[in-house]
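Memo to structure team: turn this sequence into C-alpha cells by end of day. - J.P.
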Amino acid sequence: MRAEHATYACGAALGFLGDLAVGDPRRGHPVAAFGRAAGAVERGLWRDHRGYGAAHTALCAGGAAVGAALLSRAVRRCAPAHIALTAAATWAVLGGTTLGREARAIGGALEAGDLDVARERLPHLCGRDPQSLDGQQMARAVVESVAENTSDAVVGALVWGAVGGVPGLVAFRAVNTLDAMVGHKSDRYRRYGWASARLDDVAGWPGARLTALLATVAGPDPRGAWRAWRADGKRHPSPNAGPVEASFAGALGVRLGGTLAYAGRVEHRPVLNDGARAVDGADIARAVRLSRRVSALALATTVGARIAVGAVRGARKARRSR
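Reply from structure team:
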C-alpha cells in the first residue's frame, strides 16, 4: 500500500471522527468563509448571463481546488502533516453531525406538538417556506433534506476525496456550496447560476448513486428501498436527489415528494414510494439513524476503494519494473 493512500485513509478517518465528535462550529467555519468570498465575487461579477456565471463558478471552485492542491503538495513528503491536513479538510467539508442535530431538534418539536419551534428551526435545514407547512409536511421536508444532504454533505465529499485527496474534498464542497448559493431557478440566478447547478449535478452523480445503494443495503427494508429507487428515482426533477430520496423512502417505508413551496414559488413533484404511509415526526430519528449508517459505510467503501486501487497500481508498477 503506497504511503499516500495510507495517510489519506488515516486523515479521512480522523476527520470523520472529528465531525462526529464536534460537528460544525457556530463561528469561523471554513465553508462559511468560502461562501462569503464567493458572495463578494458575485457582487462584483453578476450579470444576467450564463458566461458571467460560468466565470464565477470557475473562479471560486477553481481557486479553492488550486489552493487545496498547493497545500497538499507542500506537505506531501511529511506524513503527519499530510494526515493532519486531510483530517482538517475532511472535518471541514463534512456536515453529517450538524445535519442530524438539526433534524432531531425539529423532530423533537414536532413530536411535542410545538409547530412554532419546528417552523423556526426548519430554515436551518432547508429552504422551504415553513409558514406554509403543517406538521406532517415539515416532517416530510426534514426526511427529504436528511436524505439529500447525506449525499451532498457526506457521501459525495468522501467519493471525491477518495478520487482526488484534499483537492477533491475541497473542490466538491466548493461546487456544492456554489449550487446552494446561486444554482436556483429564480429570475436572478436562472442564467447566472446555470453553470454552478450543472457542475453540481455532474459532481454529485457518483455520490448520489453510492448513497442510494448504501441506503438500500443498510436500511430496514432493502427490498422496498430497491423497488422505490428503481421505480421512482428518475421521476424526480433532480437527477441526484431522486435516487437518494426514493431509496430512503423505500427503506423507511414512507411516502415522500409531492407539493412544496420555496419563498412563494410552488412546485409539484412526483410522489416517491407511492402507496406507503405519510411521514410523521418519529420518522425523522429513523432517517437520521439511516443517514449515520450510510455515512459510516461510505467512509469504509471510499477509503477501501482508494487503498485497493493503489495496491493494484503498485503491483502493476512492480511487475513492469522487473
